[in-house]
Amino acid sequence: MANLVYKRVSTDQQSTARQNLVLDEAGIEDPVAFEEDPGTSSRLHPLQRPKFRELLNYARPGDTVHISEMFRLVRGTGHILDVLDVLHRDQIALRIHDGAFSAMDLTARHPRTGELLSTVKFMVQTLAAAGELQRDLQRELTYDGLRAAEAKGSKGGRRPAVSAAKTADVRAAYLEGRTIAALARDHGVSRGAIRTAVADLLPDHAAINEDSPAPELPVTLDMPGKVADFLRARELDPAEQEALDQGVTVRRGQGYTLRVSAVPAVHLGLLARCQPLDGGHG
Q1: What are phi and psi of 33, to 5 degrees?
Q2: Which domain of life is it from (predicted)?
Q3: Contacts from 8-14 at CB under 8 Å and sequence distance 24+?
């Protein structure tokens, strides 16, 4: 039974350092790595990516595919379900080691029908849609910010770094008491560029990991009333209990749904507590 590790970054300016950290901490035994060329777009269907296709050709029934986060492999809902179908067909397991999907058995099937469990399918579709929404919002906010900056006369793009010829002068001025903001104005660069030039001189310097994930945004889901009643009878974590308590009741004929807003991790925790409702599976 082989352990197959898949890695991917979206641009050639990124690295797999964070993925390596997550996968190393997982303690995967005898990993066989498949890493896409830098800059392999997430828009390209996973089944069309060279290294993932190579991984599938290499894999045998009983093998396990390991990834640091789901979005290293797939982005859209359709892509996720396509990959799960192929893995199920080839009897290959999938293990995700970080992020919202890390606590889910995405290959779980109903013991009688063989179909993907309804709760798994629902959560996969929901979290994928939430991820797409978050990225769309970030793009919109970035665009609006650039438009606002242009209206004030600011040009887009990254401001230049401190040149090698000026680095010594910047460092000397900083040691003499010149502030970072003042040095940025003097040299026509960003404060970040000045901080980079004097990084080892800063009192509380800490390396910034540019590949760290963005914080999760709250997602609003409609929960069936019977599920809400089931959860209210259970002992929940404080965050889960707060999400239920703050839910908005929406009447649906003789029943109701509970509109719950929470980060994906809380929805995932609530979903895990619903496993007894899934035909006794798990």
Answers
A1: -90, 140
A2: Bacteria
A3: 8/35, 8/36, 8/40, 8/42, 8/49, 8/51, 8/72, 8/73, 9/36, 9/38, 9/39, 9/40, 9/211, 10/39, 10/40, 10/41, 10/42, 11/38, 11/39, 12/38, 12/39, 14/38, 14/210, 14/211
